[in-house]
Amino acid sequence: MSKSLALSTGILSIGLLSTPLALADDAKASVDAILDSIVVPESTAEPIVVAPTPEKDMDIAPSDTSDTELPNPLKTEVEFGYQSHTGNSDSRSLNARLNGEYTTGRHRTSGEWKYYNLYKDGEEDKRQSTYSAQSDYKLSPKTYLYGSFKGVDSRYSAYFKDYTVSSGLGYQFSNTEEFVLEVEVGPGFRYQEPNLDELDDDDIIFPEIVEEAIFRGNVNTSWQVLKNLQLKADVTLVSGHSNLKFDTELEAINDITDNIALKIAHSRQYHDKVPNGLSKEDSVLSINLLFQF
């Protein structure tokens, strides 16, 4: 009897002890299942985006941040002016100009032809043709390489022919739609032929033909004062062993329409060495119609 009681007591004790352990195992399994069901999203580090450094402006054309439309690379201008005086004086003058410029990326190429003719009292008093060509290539945001040619065929002045070739460096101090300022310096070569046909032999003090190395400097600027008013200035110095030449051109352009403008221009040419009896400077003031395409 006592053995049976002891055995029953032991079995009961084992049952009581095993019940909490079973409950603990079930609870642990439930907790593990809950933890396994929880999905923790993996942290994905956002890639660091470094903004690209703005490229330096390598276009040789004036920049305009307010206009996203690409400008026409080709620009042409046609200019014409005529004056006639009768009465106490009889004179008439004609001046014309053609200009073209092509700009794309770092390259800029331009060409120009000018013509001026003046008659007084039925006789030709002045006739001059000027033609020029230049090509530029931008080396850095401010500097560019240039090559230029300028020729002048003129009667009744110091030189009948005056040709200049030059190459060097240019620097753009400002290059915007509102204001442009460019300076060019470089060596070159020139050919000058005295005007023997229109002057007496006694008046010629330098009958020889000039062929020499020269230094050329140029300053070109334009200022858009108002939406329809632009001021321009171009100054060129050519210096050699025999003589010095200084050209100045001042312009005021008032737009009438998108393609037609009124232009007032003053050009001046100065030679420090001319034949006797001739002035060292020639100047022309003109009022023309300008057609832009």
Automatic annotation (TrEMBL):
Keyword Protein transport: no
Protein's UniProt keywords contain Signal: yes
InterPro entries xrefs: DUF481 (IPR007433), Porin_dom_sf (IPR023614)
Signal peptide (residue range): 1-24
Source organism of the structure: Vibrio lentus
Origin: domain of life: Bacteria
Entry keyword set: Signal
Protein name as annotated: DUF481 domain-containing protein
